[in-house]
Q: What sequence folds into this?
């Protein structure tokens, strides 16, 4: 066990060093040939009535945070490498000793590339190897590597079609297809119908935009080997769960500088689920307000 | 043959190759020597296909480029002449609200077609930016003196006729300075952001394209974009155009130069003033005579170089997408030009 943990932390140490190298490259090298993305997001969802497995779990609220940093050096005119890190954490305020995880967390590398394979087509391949679990203890069982394949067809400046595929062997749905569109149908209105944040956007002016739409958070995590036993449902020990959260709301994005955008939104969370699909146990939350703030930097 | 004999022969062949004028090559071979097109399928070219290549990333942060190559069923001479005097405004898909060539010297009459009466959003947008310009603040590319003159002229009144009159005065002044002093007569932009000098931006972009500047040295030197001695009496065709760019109305002043180089032609369309959306642009053309099925035609290479401040913040995949979309627009324009030569419009 000790050896396994050392190996795991070595993996992270290596990833961290690689990322540090890329970051130093990014500052040292020609600034136009390397791009960097930083996304920081915080979300609070108020108490939502939660039930499942014949239990009334009670009101569960949520704090979640997500930080994602990707460095993207240009390898050729048509290929961009993508190397980065992502940390995402869902913390749930679960009353008593109910069998709903209080923490679901992801720490992963981001490895992939963008490729312009035709005049009007771009594709993205991205794998996120890392630890996806409740972090009660970190084990090799928690390691996963979901793969995302995406393509965009650039019809013109006002219309782009998106096609995507998410592959995760541990999920109940190991292959999940998706399609979307970004359509600027008038000077001020844009339908940005793309997962995970499909929106209808209104450009108030060059720097301020209002939107209404949905937000989806999802992921596949493994709980610890004692989770079920310690919460009175032994069937959930070491189980994999698919987490899904759907939100409906509105907000505003403000372009603080040409490279930094602030997004503030609020609305309603109609549905959330923790699906232990192998054990056939699902906990569901319904109807709670939420507030969200996020910052996006591209430099 | 002895070793020194071989060396002499190779040296002689090298000298012959180095001194052979480019026009002795086939048009396609010439094109391959400087362009980003490694190969061209002639049958597809003759069928009307437009080949495109996105330009490589520039060190100049505000620059973006693209190349196109196409065939037109008209002689090189006719094609070059039409490129120099082509009016895009009849083609609705190009969203050109107004276009007119200027006399020399230009006068107010040349700008008579410039109007803000339309209710279209891009047109209203530009008028709004004109009338909200103050002595020290504007979203348009202006000198401070121009901003002051514009603010005094419009009096912040949203009157389309008055806005057109004030805007025309400004454009006429810039066109006149260019007609008198060519590239040295282009005032810098002191608003809306840091000072930008269009001619320096054009040079910065072109100097990164070594093979292009080598190929186009004759016309670029004659204009004065390369070297220090522009050719005297090298007169272009001047124009103004009012068009849509990124959902905003924009006005540009330009000059199209044409030069015969051996059996082919070089053209340079320099947009020496652009009101907004981007800062300056140059489009280079090389036109070679080329027969298709026994009838005269022309092979055209086109290179577009744009400078826009927002490009400095457009990186990664977004930058690639921007370049691809730019080429889509250029392709649309080339298609309209091909159609106009076929007599469709």
A:
């Amino acid at each position: 066990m000790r050896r396994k943990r050392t190996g795991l932390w070595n993996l992270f140490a290596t990833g961290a060093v690689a990322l540090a190298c890329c970051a130093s490259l990014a500052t040292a090298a020609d600034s136009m040939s390397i791009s960097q993305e930083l996304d920081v997001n915080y979300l609070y969802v108020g108490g939502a009535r939660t039930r499942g497995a014949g239990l009334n779990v009670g009101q569960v609220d949520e704090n979640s945070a997500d930080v994602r940093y990707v460095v993207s050096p240009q390898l050729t005119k048509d290929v961009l490498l993508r190397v980065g890190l992502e940390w995402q954490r869902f913390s749930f305020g679960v009353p008593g000793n109910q069998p709903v995880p209080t923490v679901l967390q992801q720490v992963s590398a981001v490895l992939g590339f963008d490729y312009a394979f035709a005049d009007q087509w771009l594709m993205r391949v991205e794998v996120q190897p890392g630890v996806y679990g409740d972090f009660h203890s970190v084990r090799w069982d928690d390691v996963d590597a979901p793969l995302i394949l995406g393509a965009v067809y650039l019809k013109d400046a006002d219309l782009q079609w998106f096609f995507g595929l998410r592959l995760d062997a541990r999920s109940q749905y190991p292959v999940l297809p998706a399609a979307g569109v970004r359509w600027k149908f008038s000077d001020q209105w844009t339908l940005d119908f793309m997962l995970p944040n499909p929106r209808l956007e209104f450009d108030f002016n060059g720097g301020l935009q209002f939107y209404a739409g949905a937000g989806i958070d999802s992921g596949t995590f493994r709980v610890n080997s004692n989770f079920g036993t310690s919460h009175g449902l032994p069937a959930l020990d070491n189980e994999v769960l698919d987490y899904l959260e759907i939100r409906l709301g509105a907000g505003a994005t403000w372009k603080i500088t040409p490279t930094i955008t602030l997004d503030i939104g609020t609305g309603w969370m109609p549905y959330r689920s923790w699906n232990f699909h192998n054990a056939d146990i699902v906990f569901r939350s319904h109807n709670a307000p939420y507030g969200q703030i996020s910052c996006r930097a591209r430099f | 043959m002895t070793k020194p004999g071989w060396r002499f022969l190779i040296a002689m062949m090298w000298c012959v190759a180095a001194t052979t004028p480019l026009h002795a090559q086939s048009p396609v071979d010439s094109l391959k020597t400087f362009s980003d097109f490694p190969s061209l399928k002639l049958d597809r070219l003759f069928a009307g296909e437009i080949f495109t290549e996105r330009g490589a990333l520039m060190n100049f942060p505000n620059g973006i480029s693209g190349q196109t190559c196409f065939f037109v069923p008209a002689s090189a001479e006719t094609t070059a002449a039409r490129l120099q005097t082509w009016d895009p405004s009849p083609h609705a898909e190009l969203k050109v609200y107004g276009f007119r060539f200027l006399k020399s010297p230009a006068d107010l009459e040349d700008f008579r077609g410039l109007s803000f009466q339309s209710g279209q959003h891009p047109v209203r947008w530009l008028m709004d930016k004109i009338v909200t310009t103050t002595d020290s603040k504007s979203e348009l590319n202006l000198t401070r003196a121009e901003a002051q003159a514009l603010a005094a002229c419009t009096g912040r009144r949203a009157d389309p006729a008055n806005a057109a009159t004030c805007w025309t005065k400004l454009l006429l002044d810039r066109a006149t300075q260019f007609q008198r002093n060519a590239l040295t007569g282009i005032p810098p932009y002191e608003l809306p952001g840091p000072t930008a000098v269009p001619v320096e931006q054009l040079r910065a972009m072109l100097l990164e394209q070594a093979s292009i500047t080598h190929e186009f040295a004759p016309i670029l030197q004659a204009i004065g974009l390369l070297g220090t001695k522009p050719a005297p009496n090298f007169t272009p065709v001047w124009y103004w155009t009012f068009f849509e760019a990124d959902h905003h109305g924009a006005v540009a002043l330009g000059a199209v130069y044409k030069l015969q180089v051996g059996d082919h032609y070089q053209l340079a369309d320099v947009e020496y003033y652009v009101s907004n959306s981007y800062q300056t642009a140059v489009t280079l053309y090389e036109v070679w005579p080329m027969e298709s099925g026994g009838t005269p035609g022309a092979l055209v290479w086109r290179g577009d170089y744009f400078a826009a401040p927002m490009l400095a913040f457009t990186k990664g995949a977004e930058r690639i997408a921007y370049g691809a979309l730019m080429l889509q627009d250029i392709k649309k324009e080339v298609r309209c030009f091909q159609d106009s030569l076929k007599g469709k419009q």
